[in-house]
């Protein structure tokens, strides 16, 4: 008889329930609604945050924002251990990186280690699009799940408004005489919205006559790709935030002279809009352990990590901090290590690489509807994807362990194959059942993480490239060392722009590569661990405020579109006023 030891994601839950006639299985939303949440005061008491107005501000009964002044008073306190959770290359079968992060946090607390999980805030784009929410799953969730996935504390709306205020100030400046001589053809600053809307990628604005301004081409990105989001997550405090906003390059004159946000005095009002948002949000897991959820750039089109402020807060408040980086290790982990760690001065003590047997079989050539069957041969063909990610993480000098996120269809023989394969790579693979059993299902992984943290040596950590490496070589290093590419391809216009950025003093900045999350290459259909492919660079964007260079490759879009049948089709309120279809 199949019991609760299952791991159906929101996308496969109904199918599994039907196939296995499992009336005992509850959906993510059912589990979340049945949660016995503690008042946020009790959650903060656990990590010794005092019940004072100077420490935090309740946002209802179960959410709070920590005050920056309180965190500043902790700066001399010793940091805890930092665990980076990342994953193999994503597939439609699901990997469960957030679920594993939450489960590991609960597991560490189960074995007596005071732990906090630090996550990104979900975007409305995937919630109403294809991916769904991002609050974990099963018995390894953060709650209140519906609020976290829908608006939460309004941080994303504040970021959207701050970004679009700058857009309004640019067009207003041009309308009233254009004292800065901004060239309408060279405005770099697009608008943003936190939804998937392909119709807004390229638009014409200021139509309808002279009273509405001067017509020009413009466009929208999704909020999580905004440079404001990146700055928000890479700032150390409000002053740092304001300074970085002021340094945003918004446009150029006809003589190619850069115009910055500070030239419009935009940094002051934009920072005002972000004053409350910059404070980290605290919620809880289903097991009432603290969770800090703050910021949320995507890993495929942005740098994929929660805020530096949130991570540093966790390190001051707990013995162990579990944090995740977006999508596979070739994207989120690479950017976490090369960008976030470089900017913040922090570094992880070890990494956890999440894999599922289902996803590895897809990398081995199995179609999604055939994943329920045992297929050792396909699993073995997919394992090179896992191996590539393990070797990539080790290039940064980090200790790594594998978390096998268990599904009901996994067989003992398939689990054995992964464990033996990892053992030959001198890496332990841990079978994790957190979806069904919460923290009890990750005790083995938690103990392994503690051991890795004990043997971790800070001096072993290293970046993949130095600040002094030129921009083109930085792209080549990531392409060849992480993606397995044979070369990088770019036309003369791209190469000239990189050369100009180098000459203008931006050559020491790290790079943030935007590409598909579904493959090491730029072809989402190329599974496994491809090598010898070419990385085509389509566009270069300077993020002078966030202090990195965005390198857009292949067909990746910074404004996603909705699928043929979006998740929004099934989201509604029932007769009880409850949300249905979100999971």
Q: What does this entry look like structurally?
A:
The protein is of the alpha/beta class. The protein has 20 helices and 25 strands. The strands form six sheets. Strands 1, 2, 3, 4, 5, 6, 14, 15, 16, 17, 18 and 19 form a twelve-stranded mixed sheet that branches. Strands 20-22-23-21 form a four-stranded mixed sheet. α5 crosses α18. The chain is globular and about 70 Å long. The two termini are 26 Å apart. Residues 1-23 have low confidence and may be disordered.
Tally of helical runs: 20
Largest sheet: 12 strands, mixed
**Could you say which structural class the secondary elements and strand pairing correspond to?**
alpha/beta
Rg (CA only): 23 Å
User: What's the end-to-end separation, in Å?
Assistant: 26 Å
Arithmetic mean pLDDT: 93
Unreliable residue stretches? 1-23
Walk me through the topology:
Blueprint: H1 13-20, H2 28-33, H3 40-46, E1 56-58, E2 64-66, H4 68-72, E3 81-87, H5 97-110, E4 115-119, H6 124-127, E5 136-137, E6 140-143, H7 145-149, H8 155-175, E7 182-187, E8 191-193, E9 203-205, E10 216-218, E11 220-222, H9 227-234, H10 238-246, E12 249-253, E13 258-260, H11 267-274, E14 281-285, E15 290-293, H12 308-317, E16 320-324, H13 329-344, E17 350-355, H14 357-363, H15 376-394, E18 400-405, H16 412-424, E19 429-432, H17 434-437, H18 443-455, H19 471-481, E20 487-489, H20 492-506, E21 511-514, E22 534-543, E23 548-553, E24 572-573, E25 579-580
Parallel strand pairs: 3-16, 3-17, 4-15, 4-16, 8-11, 17-18, 18-19, 20-22, 21-23
Antiparallel strand pairs: 1-2, 2-14, 5-6, 6-14, 7-12, 9-10, 12-13, 14-15, 22-23, 24-25
Helix pairs in contact: 5-18, 8-9, 8-11, 10-11, 14-15, 15-16
């Amino acid at each position: 008889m199949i019991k609760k030891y299952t791991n159906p994601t929101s996308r496969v839950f109904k199918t599994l329930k039907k196939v296995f006639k499992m009336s005992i299985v509850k959906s993510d939303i059912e589990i979340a609604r049945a949660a016995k949440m503690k008042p946020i005061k009790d959650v903060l008491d656990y990590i010794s945050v005092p019940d004072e107005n100077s420490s935090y501000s309740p946002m209802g009964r179960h959410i709070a924002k920590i005050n920056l002044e309180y965190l500043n008073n902790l700066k001399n306190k010793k940091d805890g251990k930092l665990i980076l959770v990342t994953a193999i290359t994503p597939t439609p079968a699901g990997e469960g990186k957030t679920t594993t992060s939450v489960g590991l946090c609960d597991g560490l607390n189960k074995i007596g280690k005071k732990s906090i999980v630090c996550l990104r805030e979900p975007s409305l784009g995937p919630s109403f699009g294809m991916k769904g929410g991002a609050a974990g799953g099963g018995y390894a969730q953060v709650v209140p799940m519906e609020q976290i996935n829908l608006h939460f504390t309004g941080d994303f709306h504040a970021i959207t408004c701050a970004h679009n205020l700058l857009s309004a100030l640019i067009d207003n400046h041009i309308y009233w005489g254009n004292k800065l001589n901004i060239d309408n053809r060279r405005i770099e600053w697009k608008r943003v919205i936190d939804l998937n809307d392909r119709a807004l990628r390229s638009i014409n604005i200021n139509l309808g006559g002279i009273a509405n301004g001067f017509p020009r081409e413009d466009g929208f990105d999704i909020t999580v790709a905004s440079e404001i989001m990146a700055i928000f997550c890479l700032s150390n405090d409000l002053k740092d935030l304001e300074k970085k906003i002021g340094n945003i390059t918004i446009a150029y004159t006809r003589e190619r002279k850069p115009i910055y946000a500070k030239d419009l005095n935009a940094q002051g009002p934009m920072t005002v809009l972000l004053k409350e948002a910059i404070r980290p949000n605290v919620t809880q897991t289903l097991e009432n352990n603290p969770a800090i959820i703050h910021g949320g750039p995507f890993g495929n089109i942005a740098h994929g990590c929660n805020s530096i402020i949130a991570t540093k807060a966790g390190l001051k408040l707990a013995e162990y901090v579990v944090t995740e980086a977006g999508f596979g290790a070739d994207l989120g982990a690479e950017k976490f290590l090369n960008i976030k760690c470089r900017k913040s001065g922090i570094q992880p003590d070890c990494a956890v690489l999440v894999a599922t047997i289902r996803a590895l079989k897809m990398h081995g050539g199995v179609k999604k509807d055939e994943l329920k069957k045992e297929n050792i041969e396909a699993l073995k063909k997919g394992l090179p994807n896992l191996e590539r990610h393990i070797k990539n993480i080790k290039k940064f000098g980090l200790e790594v362990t594998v978390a096998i996120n268990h599904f009901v269809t996994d067989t003992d023989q398939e689990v054995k194959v992964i464990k033996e394969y990892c053992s030959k790579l001198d890496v332990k693979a841990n079978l994790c059942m957190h979806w069904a059993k919460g923290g009890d299902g990750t005790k083995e992984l938690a103990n392994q993480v503690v051991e890795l943290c004990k043997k971790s040596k800070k001096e072993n950590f290293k970046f993949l490239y130095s600040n002094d490496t030129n921009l083109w070589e930085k792209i080549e290093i990531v392409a060849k060392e992480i993606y397995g590419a044979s070369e990088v391809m770019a036309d003369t216009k791209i190469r000239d722009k990189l050369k100009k950025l180098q000459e203008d003093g931006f050559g020491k900045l790290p790079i943030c590569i935007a590409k598909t999350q579904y493959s090491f290459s730029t072809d989402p259909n190329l599974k496994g661990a491809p090598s010898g492919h070419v990385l085509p660079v389509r566009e270069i964007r300077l993020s002078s405020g966030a202090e990195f260079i965005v390198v857009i490759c292949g067909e990746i879009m910074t404004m996603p579109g909705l699928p043929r049948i979006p998740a929004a089709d099934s989201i509604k309120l029932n007769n009880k006023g409850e949300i249905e279809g979100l999971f």
